[in-house]
Amino acid sequence: MPTVHVNLGPRSYDIEIGNGNLAEAAKFCDAEADDAHAVVITDSNVDGLYTETVTDPLADLGCEVDILVIEAGEQSKSSDVAAELWERMLDEGADRKSVVVALGGGVVGDLAGFVAATFGRGLRFVQIPTTLLAQVDSSVGGKVGINLPGGKNMVGAFWQPRGVLIDVDVLQSLPDREYRAGLAEVVKYGVIQDADFFAYLEANIEPVNDREPSVLTRIVERCCRLKADVVEQDEREETGLRSILNYGHTFCHAFEAATGYEQLLHGEGVAIGMMCAARLSERLGRVDAAFVERQRVLLEAFRLPLDVPDVDRDELIELMYRDKKVERGKLRFVLPTRMGHVELVRDVATDDIVASLHG
Ligand SMILES: NC(=O)c1ccc[n+]([C@@H]2O[C@H](COP(=O)([O-])OP(=O)(O)OC[C@H]3O[C@@H](n4cnc5c(N)ncnc54)[C@H](O)[C@@H]3O)[C@@H](O)[C@H]2O)c1
Ligand SMILES: [Zn+2]
Predict the structure, then answer these.
(1) Which of 141, 173, 205 finishes a domain?
(2) CA of 73 to the centre of ligand 1 (A)
(3) Domain holding 264: CATH number?
(4) Would you say the CB of residue 51 lies under 6 angstroms from ligand 1?
């Protein structure tokens, strides 16, 4: 079974990737210890599908298991729901020895991770991501948090899991749009870090679209390794390296905010944002038109949307200036210079940004 080791000194951990390995959470949970206690946090969609497969083997080993189910959806990443979970955990007798298990997509991972980081000043935490986005992105790297009404991911922590268990078989039940949205982040890794991986995706469009388990395993493993490489060098987003993961995201965040976070899935916004960033890079003479076209063809093969949503251009620009990535009033963009390599570019003129919105 492929394992990706994330090397963070005392906070190091393994990501185990397979197909049909969902029942193997015990190894990350100390399930055989005398006073083993796992608090499994999942959402209302995932609960009926996969909870028992995870919890039955834990219970068989004598581990006390509590299952806390939140309503599916981004609105659950709130301080209200976090407070409910803290209260429930207190009622269930959770203490420093308990392990929090996040079983679900990025919403569950971010929220459960935040609750784990804060309850009792920090509990051990295991990720079992069930969306493609969570398997290749949100479950790796230790960023956990919740939203405020005025801002996404505004309250949170860096809290590394003690392990990540990935079963690509669970992706078979993922709705089509959610699956494709995850593929946008997959393509992103190819563009920013790994030209060979990008070529691998180009050569495997059909098996990717068919969710072929062996191809999924390979993709998830590669993406986890690539993200781990970045996180290992810049765990807390201090050196700027981690910002390469934000390729396409300055545009994406503006699209998400302008459309009220309802019209677009995050990955869809990333796909459109990557097209804008590629065009911007072309305008600035960093890549040629063939690069932009190559990226477009792959995103289109994965049936991702590529057109900028129909919102006021001035509003989009204003939203970009309000984004977290603004440094002393200057917009910064992660832009490709060739396949598999990006650079952080400062001082981009507003006219160029506006021009890059058009296909
Ligand atoms: N921490 C990080 O580094 C990081 C990185 C990227 C994104 N995020 C966060 O991740 C969140 C988005 O995550 P997401 O895209 O996984 O969304 P999500 O958790 O809302 O899951 C998407 C939908 O799929 C359902 N679902 C999950 N697994 C399923 C399965 N196997 N079969 C059927 N349905 C399933 C969910 O119930 C939900 O309805 C956002 O809140 C974002 O901020 C965090
Ligand atoms: Zn993203």
Answers:
(1) 173
(2) 8
(3) 1.20.1090.10
(4) no
Task: Determine, yes or no, domain membership for 184.
Answer: no
Catalytic residue among 77, 180, 227, 279: 227
| pTM beyond 0.90 | yes
Total structural domains in the chain? 2
Query: Do 225 and 130 sit in the same domain of this protein?
Result: no
- For residue 216, the enclosing domain spans 193-356
Which atom of ligand 1 is nearest the CA belonging to 170?
A: 31
Distance of CA 242 to the CA centre of its chain: 13
Which residue has 């729901």 as its token pair?
A: 81
Catalytic residue at 253?
yes
Tens-digit pLDDT profile for residues 19-38: 999 999 998 998 888 889 99
- Identify whether residues 243 and 339 lie together within a single domain: yes
Q: Which of 255, 231, 261 is nearest to 147 (CA)?
A: 261
Residue 200: exposure state from Cβ atoms within 10 A (0-12, 13-18, ≥19): middle
pLDDT reported for residue 331 = 86
Tell me which ligand sits closest to the C-alpha of residue 267: 2
Which residue among 140, 173, 206 closes a domain?
173
**Most ligand 1 atoms within 8 A of CB, residue of 50, 74, 110 to mutate:** 110
**Which pair of tokens denotes residue 355?**
């021009």
Cα gap 137→142, rounded to integer Å = 10
